[in-house]
Amino acid sequence: MALMTVEEATSLITSGVTALGVEDVPVQAAAGRVLARDLAARRTQPPADMSAMDGYAVRGADIAETPAHLTVIGESAAGRPFAGTVGTGQAVRIFTGAVVPEGADTVVIQENVSREGDTITTTAPTAALRNVRKRGCDFSQSTPGLFAGRRLTGRDIMLAAAMDHATVPVARRPRVALLQTGDELVLPGQGTGNDSEIVVSNAFGLAELARRAGADVTDLGLIKDDLAAIRAVVARALSGEFDLVVSSGGASVGDHDLMAPALKAEGVDLSVHKIALRPGKPLMFGHRGAVRVLGLPGNPVSSHVCGMIYLVPLIRALQGDSRPGPVPVPARLAADLPPNDVRRDFMRATLERRADGSIHAIPCASQDSAMLSILSAADCLLVRPPFAPAGRVGDPCEIIPFED
Ligand SMILES: Nc1nc2c(c(=O)[nH]1)N[C@H]1C(S)=C(S)[C@@H](COP(=O)(O)OP(=O)(O)OC[C@H]3O[C@@H](n4cnc5c(N)ncnc54)[C@H](O)[C@@H]3O)O[C@H]1N2
Ligand code: MOO
């Protein structure tokens, strides 16, 4: 079977994918969710010219010379504006966040004023218009401030709230089911001490990736290498409770690799591929009706790397995320590397920041796709394109930092 490129595989999995649906959530619960529609401001901010400092609201022309003498005629505090107008030679005591009264256009900070009774004298120059936030300088009513497809940050929900949205429309969370197969697998703490046992780990990492990408995740547990047993769990996973079914293990060509036969027997339109990717050669993808199925390799590092490369972008695309893919960032090689072969290599590497600010990637000593101690100690994936020539220390390279 010819190897498929990673680009072809990514496109097979994510192209044409759109958001599953829309729901309104309280703005304070919207961080990490993908905005489903453009969000326009429901009000103008600031709603009036407002003071940025504690001091005195004056007419700028009145304080062109220092010292200037002015008469204090009232007070404007946040939430309690001054009702009158500031005339020539007059000032209003004002506090940060208060509306600048009619007639005034400048605020002199109180440190630059001496006061006696109702008379103030400026003690340092203040440029006209200083210390005033103009009406609408942040945003204006009806103008979009956040756009559909954006994964909302904590900063974004501050903006949404300030734009007066109590709820925001976000993409519904994709519902993801995880399956793990293998006669050798036992849950942590539940082994019998038999040397042929392997304690499961894949679903824990995949669940974490999927949740952080915005999915609701259900782990359907361990399944024995038995066609009927796998079919039973697959049938449940496909029954409409989930949007995406993700398996790990049984994706290769061994006699006990029963995931593909089970999925096909349950009516999944499945394609099985070998990808020019290291780690992560075997890959399955398909669907039954609206339910998508992604079959990842069993080797733990392979399953996790494929989770980053395929699963996370798919979950994001199912929310209409405008930036679904992992974003490589530039770094420099901290070790010589041999030329690469046909498989795109995602090497586990640690990162070192040098005194000049440059970031250097140090490939881990072993790149075995079963070694979780190495995956855990690494900071990033060091990307080596197919047929990359030998790399030298200091050469530019690309990395995909781990996000957790
Ligand atoms: N003749 C060939 N053999 C293999 C090929 C190949 O092209 N030709 N590909 C190799 C590659 S690459 C990979 S990756 C593995 C993937 O195989 P499977 O997806 O069928 O995975 P399993 O055989 O089920 O398991 C592999 C390995 O991973 C352990 N495992 C499985 N599930 C879990 C889990 N949930 N948590 C922790 N560890 C798990 C399992 O015990 C095995 O050790 O195939 C190569 N073979
Ligand atoms: O490429 Mo496999 O995915 O060696 O572990």
Automatic annotation (TrEMBL):
What InterPro entries has UniProt attached to this entry? Answer: MoaB/Mog-like_dom_sf (IPR036425), MoaB/Mog_dom (IPR001453), MoCF_biosynth_CS (IPR008284), MoeA-like (IPR038987), MoeA_C_domain_IV (IPR005111), MoeA_C_domain_IV_sf (IPR036688), MoeA_linker/N (IPR005110), MoeA_linker/N_sf (IPR036135)
Name a biological process GO annotation: Mo-molybdopterin cofactor biosynthetic process
Domain MoaB/Mog as annotated: residue spans: 177-317
Q: What is its EC number?
A: 2.10.1.1
Q: Which family does it belong to?
A: Belongs to the MoeA family.
Describe the task this protein carries out: Catalyzes the insertion of molybdate into adenylated molybdopterin with the concomitant release of AMP.
Q: What is this protein called?
A: Molybdopterin molybdenumtransferase
